[in-house]
């Protein structure tokens, strides 16, 4: 080998070593890049597990996968936990995730009491985000609103007010059934406002304990009131049990109309079946047959989970997706930057076009007034809504100037 050849060989060796070291260094850096952690805390085994639980986890995972699995050059990692519908348990999880585990945003938080407790934790952690995709308490966009918390789920006003207002035409009488939780007072206020606006009259009310099991005594109280309409200010298993029991006692057969003032979910229909649920009037932000895109996504969800999605699952998918878009836009996971970006970016999904998040950090969207179909009318398990009317977002939600949220400029 000539001296020039030897020099050339040495140079090639040096380049090869340099390339190897660079590759190794890049690989080590990639391995050391921390994951982008978000969390979903929900009810996995109690009264709200069907409309949240493992199905909400599946929806969030679908959102992450559809987004590409990474953001800001980091792999997105989803932590999940069961808060058991207990505010103390939920608070402990949220605190640990934010303070120890490096979670930058938390989603779902089923149950208004747990969601309000989580907001209290986030209040002292302004760089962390909460996106409430399940709880319906109006306090989440009212007196308990935060600069770093978005209320994605429809609230009790959007659910109960519109339904009660429509169904009150003709000065009908009402009996109101509520849960003895933090969700009770705002649900009552929304229902009463709708009843009065429509010209109706409330003739009685009762509080139903969460996970009460035997609800026959509450149904008999409602029947004794002789009200023409009975409105429920709660959903999930307790609402299912009330409607089942009312059928057994012949309330619907006698001409009493059941109105779901907390939204009617696919999981409720699955639990009751159309023979029991048919005729219940309700308002919903989503139903599987609303358009071709919603139908296609619902089938994807069904293939993955074996169930058609409820709105809460759609909200989890939308909320995670929109949050990640905002993170990508601002190049940061700091909620003081991400939340304003979430307000600026129009919200679009298969169920929503160019929606907006208001200054009280509440997402508003059109609501759909419907009635549960009979089994003969339904074409498939996701086809359960007989649409009565579409209510524009600005009409379905409370006026922003009436909000108690301190973020709203008076």
Q: How is this structure best summarized?
A:
The protein is of the alpha/beta class and 410 residues long. It has helices spanning 3-32, 53-67, 87-99, 112-122, 156-167, 184-197, 216-224, 236-248, 266-272, 274-277, 292-305, 311-330, 335-344, 393-396; strands spanning 36-42, 70-71, 74-82, 105-108, 129-132, 149-151, 173-179, 201-208, 229-232, 257-260, 281-284, 347-349, 352-357, 363-364, 367-372, 385-391. Helix content is 43%, strand content 20%.
Percent helix, as a range, is 40-55%
User: What Rg, in angstroms, do the CA atoms define?
Assistant: 25 Å
Biggest sheet descriptor: 7 strands, mixed
Helix count, DSSP H or I runs of 4 or more residues = 14
Gap from first CA to last CA: 86 Å
Low-confidence stretches: 19-30
Strand content: 15-25%
Side-by-side strand order of the widest sheet: 8-7-9-10-11-15-16
- What would the principal axes of the Cα set say about the shape? globular
Overall mean pLDDT stands at 90
Instruction: Give helix and strand order, one letter per element, not per position.
Output: HEHEEHEHEEHEHEHEHEHHEHHHEEEEEH
Q: Given the helix and strand composition, which structural class is it?
A: alpha/beta
Description:
This protein is of the alpha/beta class and 410 residues long. The chain contains 14 helices and 16 strands. It has helices spanning 3-32, 53-67, 87-99, 112-122, 156-167, 184-197, 216-224, 236-248, 266-272, 274-277, 292-305, 311-330, 335-344, 393-396; strands at 36-42, 70-71, 74-82, 105-108, 129-132, 149-151, 173-179, 201-208, 229-232, 257-260, 281-284, 347-349, 352-357, 363-364, 367-372, 385-391. Strands 8-7-9-10-11-15-16 form a 7-stranded mixed beta sheet, with helices on both faces. A 6-stranded mixed beta sheet has the order 2-3-1-4-5-6, with helices on both faces. Strands 12-13-14 form a 3-stranded antiparallel beta sheet. Helix 2 packs parallel to helix 12 (311-330).
């Amino acid at each position: 080998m000539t001296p020039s050849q030897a020099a050339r060989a040495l140079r090639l060796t040096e380049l090869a070593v340099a390339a190897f070291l660079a590759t190794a260094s890049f690989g080590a850096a990639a391995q050391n890049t921390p994951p982008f952690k978000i969390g979903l805390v929900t009810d996995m085994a109690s009264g709200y597990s069907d409309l949240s639980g493992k199905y909400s986890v599946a929806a969030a995972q679908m959102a992450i996968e559809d987004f590409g699995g990474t953001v800001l050059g980091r792999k997105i990692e989803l932590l999940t936990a069961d808060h058991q519908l207990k505010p103390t348990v939920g608070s402990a999880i949220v605190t640990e995730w934010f303070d120890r585990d490096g979670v930058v945003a938390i989603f779902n938080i089923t149950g208004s009491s747990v969601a309000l407790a989580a907001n209290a934790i986030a209040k002292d952690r302004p760089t962390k985000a909460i996106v409430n995709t399940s709880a319906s308490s109006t306090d989440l966009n009212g007196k308990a609103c935060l600069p770093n918390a978005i209320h994605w789920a429809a609230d009790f006003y959007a659910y109960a007010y519109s339904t009660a207002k429509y169904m009150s035409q003709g000065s009908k009488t009402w009996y109101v059934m509520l849960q003895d939780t933090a969700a009770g007072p705002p649900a009552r206020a929304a229902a009463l406002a709708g009843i009065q606006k429509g010209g109706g009259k409330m003739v009685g009310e009762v509080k139903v304990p969460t996970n009460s099991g035997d609800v026959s005594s509450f149904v008999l109280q409602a029947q004794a009131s002789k009200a023409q309409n009975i409105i429920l200010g709660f959903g999930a298993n307790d609402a299912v049990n009330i409607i089942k029991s009312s059928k057994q006692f012949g309330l619907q057969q006698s001409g009493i109309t059941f109105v779901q003032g907390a939204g009617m979910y696919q999981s409720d229909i699955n639990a009751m079946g159309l023979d029991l649920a048919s005729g219940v009037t309700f308002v919903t932000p989503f139903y599987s047959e609303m358009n071709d895109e919603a139908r296609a996504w619902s089938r994807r969800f069904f293939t993955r989970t074996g169930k058609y999605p409820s709105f809460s699952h759609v909200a989890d998918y939308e909320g995670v997706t929109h949050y990640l878009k905002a993170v990508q836009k601002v190049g940061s996971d700091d909620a003081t930057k991400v939340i304003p970006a979430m307000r600026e970016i129009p919200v679009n999904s298969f169920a929503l076009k160019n929606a907006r998040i208001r200054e009280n950090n509440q997402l508003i969207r059109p609501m759909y007034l419907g009635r549960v179909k009979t089994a003969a009318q339904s074409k498939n398990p996701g086809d359960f809504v007989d649409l009565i009317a579409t209510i524009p977002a600005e009409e379905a939600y409370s006026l922003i100037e009436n909000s108690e949220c301190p973020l709203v400029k008076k």
